[in-house]
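Figure 2 data, in text form.
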Amino acid sequence: MSEGDIKAQLVRLCSGIPLSPLPPKVEKRDESLPHAPVLTPVLSAQDCKLAVKNALRYFPKDVHKELAAEFAQELKLYGHIYMYRFLPSHIQMKAYPIHLYPAKCTQAAAIMLMIMNNLDHKVAQFPHELVTYGGNGQVLGNWAQFWLVMNYLSEMTDAQTLVMYSGHPSGLFPSQPSAPRVVITNGMMIPNYSSRQDYERFFALGVTMYGQMTAGSYCYIGPQGIVHGTTLTVLNAGRRYLGSDNLKGKVFVSSGLGGMSGAQPKAATVSGCIGVIAEVSEEALDKRHKQGWVLHKVANLEDCINMIREGRRNGISTSIGFLGNVVSLWERLAELAEQGEMLVELGSDQTSCHNPFLGGYYPVQLTYEQARRMMHEDPSQFKALVQESLRRQVSAIEKLASHGLHFFDYGNAFLLEASRAGVDVLAKGGGANEFKYPSYVQHIMGDVFSLGFGPFRWVCTSCDECDLDTTDEIAAEVIENILKSDVSIKTAQQYNDNLRWIKEAKHNKLVVGSQARILYADQTGRVEIAVAFNKAIRSGRLKVNSLLLLYKANICCPWY
């Protein structure tokens, strides 16, 4: 499409919920895309009526009769009212150059760009359910909210603030240019009513949602965001537990190739080791393989083992996506270790164990398709199988640990859910939630964080790859200058890791979605890189329309 055509389509996207005429009813979901698991909230008849009533609040009364039965059927079939009828079909969902958005202030246009990036089919885990990553990390709760938010942002001035509550736009409120353009709260729960069952009910009712860290705050830059953190984690785990910066021929085993966990194989190759990542969804594995994030895919367990052996013999850096359950892989590796053949040095887990019974963790006893059915047809039996699978997984890991495996928790609640399943994973003499396996935050990255280093991201809102290349050059120049100053040995090591990262970023093909980049920096680095970007825009090294969105951790604001 020409720029004029795109502008026209974006104007249409920002014109409010399409009502005259209503879009045609969607008879069934698009099976060419992955979809969120069917949810199983416990709802009374009154709850079901309230959920439909809450959904209808976005529409005038003259269409309630037509939509009410449809929304009730969606709730019955999928456990939530996504409003599939209102999926935008006239424009490809992705980030467009910022100057094409119909906005009265630049900040609003930048937010629209990032919302559309979060829902890009190449980026989002379940795009039609508005889930960006993590199995249930919602951008918004339904498609009516999407149309309303885009409309509000198109009307917003730099003297207004949009207030968002778990996907629900409360409206534009008077503020001032120095105030935030959007204030967001997600997942608000009253402590006495904050069980998993309570949350599932409230999400079905349309009154709360889980936005993860960067899905519901419109800050996600694709799996690159976690590639860098995982790369640093693997590098520093190698230094701490293997005593080496050189990971050639060393094996890192984990699981998950979804929205966030899909970063693991790329991180393994960037850090120089052999990454073996198990994934039960063929769709997810194929997606990462086509993107180049997984170099090899294999469905046979023994073929996978032989590929590991070959990689170790040749001392190479590569990534292997195993189509199968990670428990099977761990158990086979443990069996070989007991026979005297140890094939793995580092291990972790990135299944979505914060949501283990609704698609976050698939038990080894079932195929992927069987699990998808059982989790909503027989949730109590599914829970029992998940907990049995967790016990088997930890048992295999413990056998390997006795032979030298260094396993660490990646903050995904894997060890917490294992403990709830009855596994003794608590540290002797520790607290109620202190585990005997190290945490990547406390034990591996803690020293890095204590130096003030953390995620620093930027997005080139021009959507121009050349601008991203220029920002890479600028960031590298800043880091090289900092390294010439009087910095400590530990600080210099972290800057050198990030210098290597930024110089190899284009070669490693990290971009999925918007033209974005991440590195870790301390306050000095963040400030100096931001100032250098400003100077580059003023001098013309970066184009005038190349405004940058800068994120410190998960906070975003446009810089000029």
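Caption note: Residues 554-560 have pLDDT under 50 and may be disordered.
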